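Hello,

Following up on my earlier ticket. Below are the two sequence lines again, exactly as submitted.
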Amino acid sequence: MKITAVIMAGGRGERFWPKSRNSCPKQFLSLTSDGETMIQKTVKRLSPLVSPEDIFIVTNAAYGELVQDQLPDVPKENILSEPCARNTAPCIAFAAAVIQKKYGDAIMLVLPSDHLIGYENIYIKTLKKAIKTAEEGKNLVTIGITPTYPETGYGYINFGEESGDAYEVERFVEKPDLPTAKKYLASGKYLWNSGMFVWKTSSIMDNMQALMPDIYEGALRIGESYCTPDFEETLVKEFTAFRSESVDFGIMEKASDIYTIPGSFGWDDVGSWLAVERINETDDDKNYFDGDVISVDSKRTTVCAGKRLVAAIGTRDIIIVDTDDVLLVCSKNNTQDVKKVIAQLKEQGRDELV
Amino acid sequence: MKITAVIMAGGRGERFWPKSRNSCPKQFLSLTSDGETMIQKTVKRLSPLVSPEDIFIVTNAAYGELVQDQLPDVPKENILSEPCARNTAPCIAFAAAVIQKKYGDAIMLVLPSDHLIGYENIYIKTLKKAIKTAEEGKNLVTIGITPTYPETGYGYINFGEESGDAYEVERFVEKPDLPTAKKYLASGKYLWNSGMFVWKTSSIMDNMQALMPDIYEGALRIGESYCTPDFEETLVKEFTAFRSESVDFGIMEKASDIYTIPGSFGWDDVGSWLAVERINETDDDKNYFDGDVISVDSKRTTVCAGKRLVAAIGTRDIIIVDTDDVLLVCSKNNTQDVKKVIAQLKEQGRDELV
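Thanks for your patience. The regenerated structure is below:
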């Protein structure tokens, strides 16, 4: 069966402000010293499994050109531009309908564009298991990450009986508090919900028809118009009419016959500036310095320098990000508060800095 | 007797890097929100006592234009440009010889260009007492600051018997350790050495003749040539031949018959970036923000923004200084280490940043 990949690249990446901007969100940035952007890495690591002409990028219309520039091997008609943001369910419905129109029934990998994978061989092996599971007729398959610590910032997947390479999913659970997360880990029956899915287009379409018929109908009409002169008009009309809905809430938490493949391949969701020290090499004092940096007695300090020299003296547990028009100095305890600065800037009407 | 003032403005102000540069040291910067530079404030606060035409600025030749720009009321011939840096003794000898040539014997106030004074009325009253003391024939007079805490970064003046408005100086002592500084304060017999002096030109010249005849002779020759066509040539020849010597070591610690006037007028030597929060108003969280700053949960943070927005999130006890080509992020515990960065830059040959 044809294997395709859908890469979701419509996100805003607010937590990586001020590098991540409305005009160039996180997935189009390089946060590693090799200079490759997140989405470039995402496409590249799929190469043993999916060729660029079978990769579809769902993104905001504003980022169409960025995608083309960064991924010249992905055909232009595979860049699926959302006229507005409607969360992951309409995004996936749009892509599934287009793929079904183009190829008939096909395997569809659904992947975020802005995560990192440490062990790419194991990642590919895990995806292959998921593909085999989906091909065997299992309804919906999700990749669950074997937890390495009781993270409270992720949703979890509770799994039950083994079934071939996969496990039956008992339920999806929301972000837990710390004692609950610890219980999850101790039970050996919970995985992190990574937002990676594998299924046949026919399976996801059937589930949408049953669980969100309004979005299903609209997506079908978009799919029908794909590669016809009516496509743009139909897309705008149908997509803007969609309600916002996540695939987790709209499908995964309600569907039955769901399977998970446990994966352990150095997955990192690169969820905040704290990730930079995890995904890059640090020095003996646990500093990560990118660019022109002079340090005197700094420890556990992350510096992403811009065009200027950054002198960090005696700093501890702090993140410094320098851009042409904004400088961020952020305690490692407060990386989530970057969003509050963006909110203030919006209130002040300073959209050029958002 | 004619009252003149000599303002020493040849310093480099390394501890205020990266704002203070070789091309524009601290005394020519504004570190307060009123926009006045340190040297402008120094001249202005003397106005009840000395008019601009009787104020002499001794500075490095490289800063002559800066002085003229910032102090247009000071006559050009009062800007005494040192061809090279030779510490305070040659600086004062140069100025004393010039003033004696111009006015004959005169009162000479010797003042740093980069300190701040909180209570200017009291400052002027204190200077008046010192002038009266010097006019009465007391050899050398220094202003001592009544200590408010056991500072270990200043030299101290140990004083003895009262004599009119002044006290006899027993001895000058180097920077003490903390227990010694505490003893000094408890004794009630020690003042901070502020580097402010008052004397007749004839007195300081006599002392120089006795204690540093080489510098005295050279200075005399410079003074003789002042306002003649030979001045530039004589100055370069004599001044470059001077050895480096501080007035404290060369004169004050060796001369006899020295008096001190205790002063308590909100003196601040503005010795490091820590001073900025002392000399400016801070908010309820003890932050000082100058420029375009957004703060989320920051405390005891000093930000001197440049042309860009600075976002400070969750920061504590840190100093952020943004300039066009360098950004400094410095723990308040390490403000002295700014010099180490400058040393590194010099080693790297990056003089444009020094």
